[in-house]
Every structure is written in structure tokens, then in C-alpha cells.
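Page 42, continued from yesterday. The earlier attempt failed because a stray header line got pasted into the input along with the sequence. Redoing it now with the clean sequence only.
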Amino acid sequence: QVQLVESGGGQVQPGGSLRLSCAASGINNLYVMGWYRQAPGKQRELVATITSDLRTNYADSVKGRFTISRDNAKNTVYLQLNSLKPEDTAVYYCNAKLLLRNYWGQGTQVTVSS
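This time it went through. C-alpha cells are written below.
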């Protein structure tokens, strides 16, 4: 059974930082791991992805502020969020993809507000 469990969300002031974690079980390290987010009234959007050989891809809106990484030994993927803005407020979802397999975590709320 595949499980993706996110943690690390919370409320932070503009300019602040958070680190999200996603602990994966039931999948191997070949999966492309990613973070997506969904703000109220908006569609879910890509934030960042990382391949098994550590190639990364970012949405333009987060480049230079967010960093995705993974620890294959721990089967965990991270998202470091720096210089947070109110428009980063959303539920952040962990994702794992390999060929036709596609799995989601339950999401973790990030709120950026003063």
C-alpha cells in the first residue's frame, strides 16, 4: 500500500520560511516526486519536481525561493520554502509518479499572513 505523509505546514509571516516533508512508503526511488499546491478557488498547480537522479524543475513563481530535495535512503522528499508571500498560501500536496502510477498525499496547509 502506497502512503505519502506530509508534515511541516503552518502559519508564517511574509518573508518567513517553512520546510515541508513527505515521507513515502510502498514505492521505490525511481518515482518522480513532486510538490503541488491548491489555493482556495483555484486549480491545483505544480510547485516543483525532482527525479530519482535529482534533476529538479520549478514553477516560475517559486524559482529562487523554494528548494526541493530528496533523501532516497529515507524515501523522503522535502520542500524548503523561503521568502514566503501571501500568495503562497495554499494546501501543499506531495505527489509520486512513475509511468501510469500516480499517488497523492493528504496535503498540508501553508498560510502566509501578518
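Notes: The two ends are 40 Å apart (CA to CA).
Reminder to self: strip header lines before submitting.
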